[in-house]
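testing teh design pipeline on a random one, pls ignore if ur not involved
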C-alpha cells in the first residue's frame, strides 16, 4: 500500500484526511495519467460529503484536460458499468463503501471495470505527492456532460443477461445506501414481488449499515449480525422466498434464505463456482486467501482450479482478467461476474440469487444444503502499525513451531498455512493497527485447538516486538 491508497482505494475522515484540496490534486493526477485527454465517468454514493468531494474531483479532472461524464448518485457498479458503456477511459466512484458516515473516499477504475492496479495507483500517488500536478492550457480544459441514465443502463444490461423470472417474493434491505436506486427496481422488473426495508438513501446510514466496520463475523455465524435482524424477521414474517441486502455502495450482497438464515458467502461462492464450472466443463475460480477450503473442494470435483489473491476486490478483478476466470469472489459478499464486467456488482449478484430459484425450482435452503459449512473463527490482536512488519517476520519464522501439521504456506497476503484439518491466516489490517487471525477446520475441536495455539503464539510475538 502507498501513502494515500489502501486496500480499496483512498479513504479517510472528511476534511481531516480526505480534503477538497487533496481530491482536486487527485483529479488532476488522474487526468495526467490519462495523458490529459479522453473522458472520465464520475459518480457518488449518498454520503453527506458526496457533493463537496465530487465537485473537487470534477474540477481536478477538468483542469487536467479530460472531460467528465457525471452520472450522479449511483451504486459503484452502476457508475463503473456506465463508464464502460459511455466509452470512458476511466471511472471514479466517490464512496467509502461500508465505512461510517464521517468517511468518504475515492476509487479508480479502468474502462473494462477492473480497479486500478497497485502500479496505476502508485503512478497517480506520485503525481499527487509531487511539487505540482501538471495541468493544461486554458483552451484545453475539459467539459462536463450530464449522464443521468446510468441506473437504467445497468438495469437493462442485467435483465438482458439473465432474463425475467416471475412469481418470487423478495425482501430487499438497502441499508439506506446507493443500492436503493437500482436493486429494488431491478428485482421488480425481473418479475419479483418486492418488499423494501431502508430503501431511501441516507448519508447518515440510519437505521443500519450491515457491513459497517468488520465485514466478517468473528465466529463465522452470519445470523449474529444484529443489523440484519430486521431483514431476517421480515423474510420469515412475509414468507418470502429470499432476502437480499446491499452495503453502502452496493458492491456487495448478502443473501437470506426462506427460513430466515443468512447464507454464508463462502457457500454462495461455492454454488456459483460449481454452476460455472459445470456449464463450461472446467475453468478457473478466483477468490482471496480468506475464503473457505470448500471452494477448492468444489473446484476439484468439477475440473476446475482456484487462484487465491490478496484480500481486496482490485486483486480479485485483476486475477479474473489475467486468468480468464469464470468467477471472482470474496467472502464479504463480493462477486465478480466477468461476462458483464470486472467490477464487484451487488445488484447483479442479487439478481443472480433470484435466478437460482427460477432455474432449480426449489427453496434456496434445499439447493444449498449439499454444501459443507465448516466452522470458522476470527481474532483481532492489537499491533502498532510501525511494528506490523517486524511481527509478521517473526510469525513467518515461528508459526511452524506453534502449530502442528503444516503442509504448506502461502504468502500472497500475510501468512496462510495449510493444515491437516484446515488452514490458518495471519495478516496485518490495511486500515487499523491490528493483526487479523482467521482459521477454518473440519470440526469445532480442531478449530478451537488451532485458534488457541495461534492466539498464544502471535500474542507473544506482538508483546515481544512492542516492548
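output:
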Amino acid at each position: 500500500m502507498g501513502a494515500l491508497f489502501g486496500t480499496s482505494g483512498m479513504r479517510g475522515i472528511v476534511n481531516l484526511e480526505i480534503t477538497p484540496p487533496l481530491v482536486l490534486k487527485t483529479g488532476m493526477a488522474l487526468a495526467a495519467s490519462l495523458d490529459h485527454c479522453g473522458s472520465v465517468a464520475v459518480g457518488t454514493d449518498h454520503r453527506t460529503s458526496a457533493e463537496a468531494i465530487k465537485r473537487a474531483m470534477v474540477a481536478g479532472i477538468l483542469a487536467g484536460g479530460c472531460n467528465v461524464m457525471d452520472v450522479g448518485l449511483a451504486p459503484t457498479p452502476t457508475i463503473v458499468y456506465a463508464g464502460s458503456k459511455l466509452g470512458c477511459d476511466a471511472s471514479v466512484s466517490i464512496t467509502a463503501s461500508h465505512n461510517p458516515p464521517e468517511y468518504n473516499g475515492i476509487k479508480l477504475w479502468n474502462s473494462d471495470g477492473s480497479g486500478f492496479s497497485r502500479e496505476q495507483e502508485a503512478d497517480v500517488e506520485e503525481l499527487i505527492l509531487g511539487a505540482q500536478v501538471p495541468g493544461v492550457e486554458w483552451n484545453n480544459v475539459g467539459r462536463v456532460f450530464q449522464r443521468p441514465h446510468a441506473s437504467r443502463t445497468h438495469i437493462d444490461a442485467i435483465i438482458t443477461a439473465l432474463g425475467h423470472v416471475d412469481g418470487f417474493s423478495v425482501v430487499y434491505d438497502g441499508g439506506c445506501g446507493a443500492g436503493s436506486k437500482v436493486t429494488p427496481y431491478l428485482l421488480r422488473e425481473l418479475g419479483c414481488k418486492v418488499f423494501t426495508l431502508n430503501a431511501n438513501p441516507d448519508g447518515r446510514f440510519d437505521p443500519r449499515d450491515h457491513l459497517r466496520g468488520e465485514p466478517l463475523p468473528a465466529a463465522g455465524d452470519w445470523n449474529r449480525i444484529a443489523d440484519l435482524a430486521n431483514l431476517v424477521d421480515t423474510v420469515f414474517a412475509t414468507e418470502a422466498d429470499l432476502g437480499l441486502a446491499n452495503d453502502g455502495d452496493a458492491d456487495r450482497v448478502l443473501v437470506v434464505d426462506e427460513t430466515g438464515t443468512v447464507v454464508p458467502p463462502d457457500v454462495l461462492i461455492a454454488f456459483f463456482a460449481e454452476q460455472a464450472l459445470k456449464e463450461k466443463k472446467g475453468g478457473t475460480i478466483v477468490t482471496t486467501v480468506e475464503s473457505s477450503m470448500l471452494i477448492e473442494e468444489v473446484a476439484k470435483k468439477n475440473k476446475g482450479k482456484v487462484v487465491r489473491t490478496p484480500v481486496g476486490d482490485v486483486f480479485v478483478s485483476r486475477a479474473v482478467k489475467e486468468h480468464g476466470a469464470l468467477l471472482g469472489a470474496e467472502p464479504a459478499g463480493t462477486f465478480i461476474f466477468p461476462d458483464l464486467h470486472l467490477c464487484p456488482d451487488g445488484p447483479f449478484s442479487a439478481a443472480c440469487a433470484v435466478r437460482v430459484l427460477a432455474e432449480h425450482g426449489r427453496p434456496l435452503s434445499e439447493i444449498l444444503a449439499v454444501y459443507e459449512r465448516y466452522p470458522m473463527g476470527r481474532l483481532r490482536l492489537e499491533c502498532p502499525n510501525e511494528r506490523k512488519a517486524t511481527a509478521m517476520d517473526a510469525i513467518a519464522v515461528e508459526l511452524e513451531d506453534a502449530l502442528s501439521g503444516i503442509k504448506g504456506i502461502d504468502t500472497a497476503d500475510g501468512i496462510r498455512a495449510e493444515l491437516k484439518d484446515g488452514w490458518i491466516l495471519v495478516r496485518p489490517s490495511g486500515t487499523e493497527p491490528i493483526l487479523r487471525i482467521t482459521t477454518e477446520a473440519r470440526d469445532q475441536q480442531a478449530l478451537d485447538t488451532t485458534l488457541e495455539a495461534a492466539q498464544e503464539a502471535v500474542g507473544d510475538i506482538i508483546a515481544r516486538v512492542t516492548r
